[in-house]
Amino acid sequence: MRRSLASWLVGARIARVRVNRRDVVTLPSDPAGGYGRNPGKRVGTPARVRGADLLSGATVTELRRRGKQLCIVGRSGPGAWRGVLVHLGMTGGLSRVARGHQSPAHAHVVWTLESGERLVFADARRFGGLWTLEDEGALMWRHWSRLGPDALGVRAPELVRRLARTSRPIKAALLDQGVLAGVGNIYADEALFLARVHPGVRADELDGDTVRRLAGCVRRVLREGIEAGGSTLRDFRDSMGQPGRYAKRHRVYGRAGEACRRCGTTIEGTSVGQRTTAFCPVCQDAGGA
DNA sequence: CTTATGACCTGATAGC
DNA sequence: TGCTATCAGGTCATAA
User: Fold this and answer.
1) Phi, psi of A193 (to 5 degrees)
2) How confident is the model at residue A227 (pLDDT cuts 50, 70, 90)?
3) For strand C, which residues in window 7-66 of chain A come within 7 Å by CB?
4) Inter-axis angle of helices A156-163 and A208-227, to 10 degrees?
């Protein structure tokens, strides 16, 4: 998504912003989790979202990603840093809409560029959202300091150290964004298959060689996924509307009941940490490592 | 502190 | 056709 946005959004000047749903936007003054995402804590009237907080009047200079979070960085006037953090959740998307064309369904926030085209944040299920940032420090300290290293470039020693500190199943640890940032349910299953690690084994019981192998497999599946434009199960489209092509290359995810591509055994479907999990019981033997 | 669990949402699909 | 149940790519608050 970052790459597909960069090609047309960087350098663009934002003329105005329209917020159709206040609760997908979290201001620094809103409750930590976000105003709309915890009904029990919706108290009082939320502060109004100002256009400038969502880059109105700014020129986009950069798109920075860490894990699953994307920061649209801009400048308004000399030296004035602006930034909006985006998380797509499960069904969120950012899309480019030409002048005169219709926005997608669930268009919660719409930026109109000086060129007349629009950037639209849409999210049917609303697990995603936007976070405004008062300065670069807020991005680094309030948001990104809570994330583990970005999975695309994670080094083996770092992963070894981090996995040694948790007794959870390895799959649950890989999905914890504070341990490692950027691996979701699909790529966790794919990486574990490639590394021949059973998703249910305790993270702190994996030996060093196995974790080193796993680090390489995490980087590999993400690199492959990005090169293929992502995994489209149903909803995902990049900002130009293109679906990803990686799902047809999944080795285990979504293939429970089908034959393992490596050994022919039936891929098993189960649940680890409340998440749908697929693995090959022969290639990913819980005893082996 | 760490870990487990339910809640948050909507839409697609399967089964009756 | 229309109803209900089930499931989904992620995270957060809360309880244990």
Assistant:
1) -65, -50
2) very high
3) 31-34, 37-38, 40-41
4) 120
Q: How confident is the model at residue A30 (pLDDT cuts 50, 70, 90)?
A: confident
Give buried/exposed letters for A116-154 (b at 16+ CB in 10 A, else e): ebbbbbbbbebebbbbbbeeeebbeeebbeebbbbbbeb
Chain mean pLDDT for chain A: 95
The answer to whether the pTM exceeds 0.90 is yes
What is the DSSP secondary structure assignment for residue A138, as one 8-state letter?
I
Higher-confidence position of A44 and A194 = A194
A172 touches strand C (CB under 7 A): no
Nearest nucleotide (C1') to the CA of residue A236?
C9
CA–CA gap between residue A86 and residue A132 (Å, rounded): 9
Q: Please give the residue that has the higher pLDDT: either A53 or A43.
A: A53
Q: Are the C-beta atoms of residues A117 and A98 closer than 8 Å to each other?
A: yes
pLDDT beyond 70 at A225: yes
Structure tokens at A272: 């680890």
Through-space separation of residue A279 CA and nucleotide B1 C1' in angstroms: 32
* Shortest-distance nucleotide from A184 CA to C1': C9
Closest nt by CA–C1' to A204: B2
Nearest nucleotide over every DNA/RNA strand to the A91 CA, judged by C1': C9
Phi and psi, residue A248, nearest 5°: -70, -10
How does residue A78 score in pLDDT terms, banded at 50, 70 and 90?
Answer: confident
What protein residues sit with their CB closer than 7 Å to strand B? A 36-37, 39, 105-106, 124-127, 165-169, 172, 234, 273-274
pLDDT at A138: 97
